[in-house]
Structure formats: structure tokens, C-alpha cells
Amino acid sequence: MSKKNKLHSKTVFALAACMLLGTTALSGCGGNSGNSGAANATDSANQANQSADPGNGPDHSKPLTITVFNNAANYQGEQTGWYGKLIKDKFNITLNILSPQVAGDQLYKTRSAAGDLGDLLIIDNSQLEELIPAGLIMDITDKVKNTEYLSKYVDQHFQPFNAAFDKVNPDGKIYGLPTFVADTSPTTFSEEIPYSSPLMPWDYYKGIGSPKLNNLTDLLDALQLMHEKYPATTDGKPISPITLWKDWDNGSMENVRWLSNWYGYEQPDGTSTIQLNAKGDIVPLIDDNSMYKKILQFYFDANQRGLVDPDSPTQDWNKVSEKLTNKQVLLLWYSWQRGFYNTPQRGAQGDGNVAIPIGDTHIIQNSDAYFGNGRVFAIGSKAKDPDRIMEFMDWMSSPEGLRYYTNGMEGFNYEKTADGKFKLTEVGQTAFQDNTPVPDEYGGGGYQDGQSKINSMIIGDFAVDPDTGEFYNKDYWNATIEANKTTLTTEWQSMFKATNPTDYYQKNNMIDIVPNINTSLGTDSSDIKNKRSQISDYVKDTSWKMIFAKNQAEFDQLWTKLKSDVNGLGWTDVFAADTVKAEKIVKLRAEAMANK
Amino acid sequence: MPGPKYSTGSRSVSKFLYILPFMILLAVFAYYPLYGWVYAFFDYMPPIPLSESPFVGFKWFHSLVENQVKIDQLLQVVKNTFGISGLGILFSWLPMIFAIFLTEIKAVRFRKFIQTVTTLPNFISWVLVYSLAFTMFSSEGIVNGFLHQIGLADSPILFLQSSEHVWITQWVWVTWKTLGWSAILYIAAIMGIDESLYEAAYVDGATRMQVIRHVVLPSMLPTYFVLLMLQIASFLNNGLEQYFVFQNAFNKESIQVLDLYVYNLAMGGGSYSVSVAISMLKSLISVVLLFSVNGLSKLLRGEGIV
Fold first, then answer.
1. Which helix (H) or strand (E) element contains residue A184?
2. Smallest CA–CA separation between B101 and chain A, in Å?
3. What is the pTM of this model?
4. Where is the ABC transmembrane type-1 domain (chain B) (predicted)?
């Protein structure tokens, strides 16, 4: 009897337990989203490690692991391979990289809310602006001035960059070092092709008789002709003249944003409601005459003609890059999109994606990143051994560090020519694409796997190597340019009578190079942030719907609704905030041009 | 039967100790998170800690309903939540019927096969379900290829970006995924039905359908009602993964449920405070729903759930 009772009470308890757990699970989804649970995410080994006498350079006898919080990285974990071995041998340093691109954006929020982002930080300008007043960034003014290589950039680059954050940095201290700094000039553009310009497969373009394109209607006609003639790849995959993807969309629809650049209007990073031209005119995105609307109309027309990939709204960039690799796309706009298909072997047969200028375009292009490129290197205020981190950053910016970062190992990837310049070895030409195994003396592993996963640098590859007098970027070495003179290049050059696309656009007065401005644009209040996000979502969704609208009437009706609805979401406030940012850019550009 | 004598005091202490772990769990996971609600009343922007954030009172609640566009948006979200959950409740008898028919299959191997095949999708994550959906229903997918081959469609049908019948499509996906799994409880219930009831029915000359109608179905109803109640309790929690992976510009208006809306706001705009405000509203609606169902239960069955 008592046994049965016991059993019974056990069952009751079990049931009670289940119910409690059930309630817990249900009520647990209350309002805890604002809770930061990352206090335990900080590093266990966080004791300050006193470095040796800084006068004689830091002591390397103790191994040091640097936690790198890195917005630029698309790899998370310990740096391994040849670069890992290199810095282990040289500095006794191991890099432990944290990547928001891999782990998600909340990594920044949780770690910064917990008060320690990491030892070495590669973060956005706007984040620097938030983190300085929160006390998470170390003042490195004196440390930078005592370095061998970085100190040379203090007056021209680092000091003015940091001074611009005057709201949070009234004393003009140095907190962050900008990324990819070029040493050309604030108004020079050194690359051979603009970031965004019309690109098409050369053989198909010739296949329809190389028609001269005067405007976007000609472009649509040409795409249609090409599509009729080449509906599928040689192995039977369907070709889409235009393909779009959604996962890059941020403030507005990215594929629309960058085509606006063809006609001289850019949307500066950090804004989402305006477009800006080289003269400094600020146009609201929802203006009836905005370039944004004209490009929407272009895509809509293209879709009406059946030229837009129907998978566009549901595919992501990975799927697009697969299509690019298979040559399934006829119109490209982003200079790097070429690289998925173009190779020297195909180039020798006149096959590859090249720039096909359109007569009425007038491209807006930012100059070399003389002042840097939107992100900064900084040291966390709780960093374990800041002197050794500084020493490492200085080495990264030395000729030796830059060569390792951009071009790999001398003797393996490149070698010296008789005239003292560099040329790629046979292995070096394809070491990246083929992930060629690296000899054991360098640490083994694949070449690409072992490259620096920091994926960012303070001094960029458009700086001149003092030993050779050429850029660090191997694509611009004389030897590389000679080797790349393929049929594709020479045919293109003879048709357009220019050495490269940038040259063509400049000769024909079809491009405006505007100074690349890299500075503090101020942080949004949470009110503006909130409104911006709602407006952006609305603008993006409507843009997609407009491109795929059934007819012109639906297109127009969606546009009218967009214009009125965004007002209810706070358009005026966000537009005002963006106008302030744009005016600052316009002013700084004018100053840079005046100092030319 | 003589046993050890407890004083009432020490007995209650030991009983209390039995439930203590669960009370601690409840406090930590259900009540402590409520503290997070304070974020809704501050202008919180990491990395500035809450203690240094300005107090803004009901600003965020007010901003949710400050003009017609926003009210419409919120109403649409609530409508979607109710619509999709409502569809689920409307068809909540489906797993029961499925279980009944499944147990009626006499070929054991075939029955096991069907059960395995229908249960399996429950263990696939929504992300994988979406890639499956993409492979099947994209313009180059299997379905479009098939329709094209048999000559039913000239141009591909864009299933995934259709803005029509979104609730129903989503209901079909979730049913496909969970049907077999939800049937398990009912199958267990059917196994528990007294054999003598069947025998009596057959002796009385009942047909197979009559047995189902008069023996099986009534024995299943208690189970059904318990599960229905649980489903109503989680009316607003229709999850976000499914809608998150399936959402795109075209179906967003009909697919954005409360949980997804909160996520889109918090992760898209980094606006934690506003998201907390919305999720507080959600808890409020939940409490209202709970009490109304409880009231209904009292009215109909004479006893409440809580």
C-alpha cells in the first residue's frame, strides 16, 4: 500500500516538474532580449602582463595570444599556416581572431556591453566613435609616435583623421589608425577600372557585332540580342542577362545603389536616404527625378523584357558567384565580379568579362583611400601587452610586413628581376586560386589557407615599396602588366583606344574622381537608428516589388505609396541627419580639391 | 502499518525541498529575465551601459503607435500572427485523424515506413527545409523543370516569391514538417484503448468506420483537448525561424509575425529598447488570451485551466 502511495507521489512530482518546466519555457520568452548575456564571453586570461622595458623593445620570451576583434575578417579562430608560423617565430605571438562576419553582428553588441571587445580591434569608424567615450579604446598617441614605420604617417594621416572625431576626442589624441591608407594623393585614382561600371562577356559582345551603346535602352537591346543568341552556356546552363541578389542590401537596394554611380550619383556609407553627386547636390532617394528611381525603372524595363533572373529575390551572393563562375550572367557592375570567370588562359583566347562603356554614363568614383577606408585599427583599453601589439602593427606596416601580407613569400610567390623589381614566380601566379601547398620550412599547408586572416591593413597596397619603386599590389607591377597582355586585353585596347577602362573614361571625360573622405560622420541617436532601419526595410522591400511589378501602373502606384508611407516612418528626421553627413562630405571634398 | 512518524513541520520541509530546484529554475529562467523589461524605458545603446543611459519613459511604446502608417504595420503583424496561429488551431485535428488512419493500416512494415517518413522532417532544421524548398521550387528547380517538360508551364512559376496564399503555404510547410511527430501522442493514446471496447463493438456488428467513430474517436478527445489547450497557450509564439528563412520582399507583408517583427527590429536596427517594448506588448496579449481561454473553459466545462 505504502509502495503504491510512493509511486503515486513520484508521479505527481514528475508531473509537477514537467509543468514547471513547461511554464518556464513559455514565460522565458518574455522581454529578455535586452539582456546581455556575454559577461562570461570575455577572456579567461585577462591579467595584465607587464612587458619588459619599452626602451629596448618589448621582450618576446613569453608567448602572447592576441584576441583580435575583427570586422574585416571572414574567418574565426586561430591564425594558422605560413603566416601564423611567421609571426610566432618573429614575435612569439598567436592571433585569436573573432569575426562578426562569421559569428553575427550581436558579437559586437554583447562584447562591447560587457566592457571588453578584445586586444586588437579592427572596427568601423562609427564604432570607434561609440567606443571612445565608453572607455574601451586605448590612447596610443605616444606609442605611435615612437614607432619606426607608422610614425611617418602621423602628421599627414593619423593626426587629422583622429582630430576629426572632435566630439569624442577634444584633445586630438590618437585612438585609431585608419585602414588601407594609400600614399598617392587625396585626389588620385590608381586602379585600372572603376568600382562600378558596365561589364560584359567580350566574346558575346563581339558575337552580336559590338554595337555602340549610347544609353540604357541600347544596353537593354544589346542584352536582349545576346540572350537570344546565347540562351545557355556551352554545358547547357541557362543564361540570365541580369541577376540581382538581396543579401548585400543595407540602407537601400544595393544593386540599384551601385548602378546609380554610373550616372554620377553615389550613396555615401552611413546614409540611406540620399544620393550625392560630384558637384555636391544632395538628392532624396524618393525624389521623382532621383537616379535611384531611374535605375529602378531600368531594372523594371529589363524585367518586362524577360532579362532579369527570376531567382533574384530569393538567391544570395553565393548562388550569384556560382553563376558568375559558370558565365551565366551577361551584365556585371562590380569590378571584382570579373574575377570569378576571368583567367589568363581564357584571356589568351579572348574570353572574359570586360568593361563595355555606355555613351551617356558619367561615373562617380572615389579616389584612392589616402585617408583610409572606413575602418580603423585600435587597441582595446584592457589589452594585455599593448607594446607588443603596437610593435606587431608597426611591422605589418613595414615593407617586409606589407610584402608578406600582399604577396606572400619571396622565392615562393615572387622573385627579384635583374633590374631590382619584383615578378611573380610560376607558382605565385596561381598560388591563391589553387591554394598551392607551401614548403614545410614556411610552415606547410595551403598558401591561401595560410594567408593573414586579419584581412585588413593599415598601410594599403597602393603604397610604394621603397626597394622597387612600384606599388605593393602585384597586379600593378610592370612584370605582371607585361604578362597580362593577353588577346582579351589587346583586342579591348584596340577597340576602345585606351590602355584600361579608367584611362578610357578619363580620356572621354566620362568619370568624376572625387576625394575619398574617411572621417567621423557622427553617430545616429537610437531614435534615428530605429527610424532608419524601418525606412530602409520599407524602401528595400518596395524596390524589389517595383522591379518585379506586373506593369507600369503597378510600378507607379508602389512608388507613390512608398513616398507617402516613409513619411509616417520618420523620413524627415532621417533625411535631415543624412543631409548633415552629406554636407560634411561635400565640405571636406572641396577642401581636399583646394589643397590639390 | 507503523512507519516512521514525521511531524507535519519536517514533512513540509522535505516536500518543499523536492520542489525547490524547480522553483529556482523558474526564478532564474522565468522571473529574472523580466528584469530585462527595464530596457524598454531607457534609451539603451551598447556599449553605453544601462546605468548611464537616459530614462525615456513610455517614448518607445508611444513611437510604436505614433501615426497611421505604424499602426497599420503593427496591426498587420498582429493579424499575421493570429492568422497563421489560427490556421494551425483550425486544423489541429489533423494529426489525430492521421494517427487513427495510420493505426488502421494492417501491413506493419508499410505502416512503420509511413510513420518514419512523416516523422523524419521534424528533425530537419528550417534552414535546411528552405534550401530543400529552393532546390524544388526555384525557377530552375525540380518542380518547374517537371512542369516545363510535361508542357504545363512555358515560363517558370515563382512559387517562393509569390505574395498570394502565404499563410496557407506556410501552414502546409509546417504541417509537412510536424504531422508525423504530432501524431505520436495520439498513436500512444490509441494503443492505450481497452481491447474489450473493440471486441464489444465488433460483437455488436460495428463496421470499421463505426468503430473509429464510436470507440477510437471518443477515447482520443481528452488527449486532443489537452494538446489544443497547449497550442492556444503558445498562440503568439509561432516561432521565427520558419518565417525568417522564407521571408522576402514579396511575402513579407503577410509573413511577418510578432516574433519575426521583434527580431527584424532588434537585429536590423539594433534597437533593443523598441524590441523589448514590443515583446512586452506580446506578453500582455498572451495574458489576455490566457484569461479569456480560461474563462471560456470555466463557462463550457465548469472548471478552469489555471
1. none
2. 30
3. 0.80
4. 78-293
